[in-house]
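User: quick one, fold this
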Amino acid sequence: MHSKLGSILKRWHSFSANPRQLQKKWAGVFYKNESDYLRSISCADCRSFDSSKNACGIGFGTPLRKCVVSSIEAHFNNCVDEHVLEIGFGRFMLAKSLITRSGGVWTGIEPKIPKSVVPTLGQGGHGDAANIPFGDATFDRVFGIQSIEHWGQKVGGRVPSDYGECLKEVSRVLKPGGTVYFDAPIYFHGHEMFIANDLPRIRALFCDELWSNVKIEKWRQSYEPLERYAPSDTVLKQDWPVELVSYSADDLHKARDSVSVYMIAITAEKRIAC
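Assistant:
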């Protein structure tokens, strides 16, 4: 939903979200374990699903955006006394609102902001995952909303960043035992491993030397009874031909009529010994 009403509902949700209510909504285990690192949240079992209406209870946004909202609600409803860094912040303020309202301090970096705007703790400014302008062990948590898939992106003439170097930089600014959260779309845009649903390759980005307790949550891969969310014509024509190198573009195009765009949320902890 890109309507004016949708924008108003999105802003209102960010403004009115109550951390205590969301702690109750998402208390306990809200996923099913599939393997040592894979978890799944089907639409039918999601706590945002409204069974009386057979619809998602998040009343705005695309199917993917609804998952982003639910995952943020689940992961950011209690940030008491935490210093939290957001990489690639935009206009969607739900995470920032929950962080600050639950007792944390939000700081953000964004590469599109002029370099003259230097971020300080509690404020946003210029920066990116490869160049985080803060000292070692500054933050308790680092996160990105629909940003990690773009770090290694080439479309539009971008110069891709190296994922290993970016995650070393993220680890550097995290306190020992600090955590990360990154969500990203699958079968949509960004680096080819996200387009191709290569979850083992994505998991391998988080090397055991730096990270422990790495988990990947799959939101909406099992979408029934809700609608399938097909990859758009735009990404098929603009992104896939540029990004796909290691995978068969023909196979992915053939699969377009059966696959559904879904979201992953990656969480991990910085090893205390690092």
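User: anything notable?
Assistant: The two ends are 43 Å apart (CA to CA).
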